[in-house]
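Please, structure for the following, as tokens.
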Amino acid sequence: MAEIVTLQLPTYLAQRAKEIAALNHQQLEDLLIEFIDRAITEQPVESLPDEQVLALCDMQMETEQQEIFSDLLARNTEGQLNQQETQQLEELMQLYRRGLVRKARALKVAVERGLKSSLY
């Protein structure tokens, strides 16, 4: 079941969301649902306990996903993907990027807390 919610977004925010949706070949509504869901379900790294921050620092894509991702990337370079595989590659790329951002945030927090030495 779904509930209809009407939002009035600032112009700059609506425009940016439209651009991201277009880049990802998504409907604006789907993109906004995804963003809201992620914001609600992913606890901010800064609020996590030390052991969870350190676990995020070492986070990697699951082995099976990594193998599929690598295969799709290689085949994409050669122009050998069908539409379904292209979609799967885009989804894995989004997952990979989100993971990298979360891992980077965790590394920053870990350094700030003295759990890891500075990367410089």
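The chain has a mean pLDDT of 92. The CA atoms of residues 72 and 78 lie 10 Å apart.
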